[in-house]
Amino acid sequence: MASIASSAAALRLPALLASTCTSSCRALSGSASTMALAQMPRVAAAHLNPVAGFVGAIGNTPLIRLNKLSEETGCDILGKAEFMQPGGSVKDRAALFVVKDAEEKGLIKPGGTIVEGTAGNTGIGLAHVCRSKGYKCVIYMPNTQSQEKIDLLRMLGAEVHPVPAVAFDNSENYNHQARRHAERLDNAVWTNQFDNTANRRAHIETTGPEIWEQTDGGKLDGFICATGTGGTLAGTTRYLKEKSGGKIKCWLADPPGSVLHSYIQSGGKLMERQGGSITEGIGQGRVTENLKPDIGLLDGSLHIPDEESIKMVYRCLDEEGIYIGASSALNVVAATQMAQKLGKGSRIVTILCDGAYRYQARLFSRKWLESKGLVNAIPEHLQKYIVLN
Ligand SMILES: Cc1ncc(COP(=O)(O)O)c(C=O)c1O
Question: Which family is annotated (predicted)?
Fold first, then answer.
């Protein structure tokens, strides 16, 4: 029942309607039914009334038309403003759902400990959710991450363990260390964001319905975004595909260093990894449990080089007044390319995952950009925004 109440709070729905939404959406994660979706209640587009605590403020983010890019392409390029989440990123949704899932399954009791392996945003979302619900939070992360993220997690009360960055198949990988830490404690759970499908369910139950509602009942031609765990792409794709009877095209956007573009282009035969990327939180070396049920629904994929992504960070700032991180900028580049491929007048939605605040010491530092060979990717008239040394 707790989940229904908090779902109602998050979506601003009466509890009865929310329970219809929750159960019909849940049915989707198995064999999805368009009928079930058709019966779903409408989702409010904004928080108009007081909400119940931090978790009540998660979701219902604005859908922003990127005006310059829309005019330039003759299309509608729409960005879901996840940087406006209370914890600052799209991962607040997944954080809430994995904690609710653990509560519903009786895996955690009041005063317990949530343990997760995360490079950043999920940990920050979890740290907020844990504070608001009275749980302890333990985070394992690769020691390559920025000091700002470690500091923020500690300020939010999390116990942070930066550990050597080793591959997933090494038992010292941060995810395996997180699992073992939870196993050693009483009343503790490893929320396992990569393979716990409560993550994907967050987007079936919230992101997808919000986009549908905000586009006047699904008046859109395409949805595209990059993946880390795959929860956002998989869950949103599942919802939009089912609700539109397969009409809305759903594509993956992929950074260098990820295997998923080659996987989709080769019809599942190849998993080629080339190079690395300055983007954080995205790029994947395997098909996670979150992505597995929905990867077959995808209609295509685009590979976006870092040069394009960094240029778009600066363009969004200058032309749209929007301060977004590199994964969001990659998504905007991809949405623009998808719009051009689908033709004039098409309407595309993407995800603005988080703000640039978490990366500004890198993205706006001349030294850092030079070290990555990216200064020249930024048009000369935009280089005035490189204000850090
Ligand atoms: C900045 C950023 N963008 C995008 C994503 C990808 O979201 P998902 O894990 O739902 O695929 C993440 C995930 O951590 C992220 O931190």
Answer: Belongs to the cysteine synthase/cystathionine beta-synthase family.
Ligand 1 binding pocket includes 283 (Cβ within 6 Å)? no
Ligand 1 centroid – CA 14 distance (Å): 30
Q: Measuring CA to CA, how many Å separate 17 from each of 7, 43, 169, 388?
A: 10, 10, 44, 50
The verdict on pTM exceeding 0.85 is yes
Per-residue pLDDT of the chain (389 residues; tens, 9 = 90+): 223 223 333 333 322 223 323 333 333 333 333 333 433 334 444 678 999 999 999 999 999 999 999 999 999 999 999 999 999 999 999 999 999 999 999 999 999 999 999 978 999 999 999 999 999 999 999 888 778 888 999 999 999 999 998 988 899 999 999 999 999 999 999 999 999 999 999 999 999 999 999 999 999 999 999 999 999 999 999 999 999 999 999 999 999 999 999 999 999 999 999 899 999 999 999 999 999 999 999 999 999 999 999 999 999 999 999 999 999 999 999 999 999 999 999 999 999 999 999 899 999 999 999 999 999 999 999 999 999 99
CATH code of the domain made up of 63-87+199-385: 3.40.50.1100
Whether 354 is in the pocket of ligand 1, judged by its Cβ within 6 Å, is yes
Specify the CATH number of the domain 91-190.
3.40.50.1100
CA distance 286 to 104: 28
Could you give the residue range(s) of every CATH 3.40.50.1100 domain in the chain?
63-87+199-385, 91-190
Centre of ligand 1 from the C-alpha of residue 282, in Å = 6
Q: How many Å lie between the centroid of ligand 1 and the Cα of residue 328?
A: 9
281 lines ligand 1 (CB under 6 A): yes
* Closest C-alpha to ligand 1, atom 14: 281
Distance, CA of 229 to CA of 369 (rounded, Å): 27
Distance separating alpha carbons of residues 193 and 140, to the nearest angstrom: 13
Spatial CA neighbour of 331 closest among 83, 45, 104, 29: 83
Our mutation pick for probing the ligand 1 site, out of 327, 350, 351, 357, counting the most ligand atoms within 8 A of Cβ, is 327
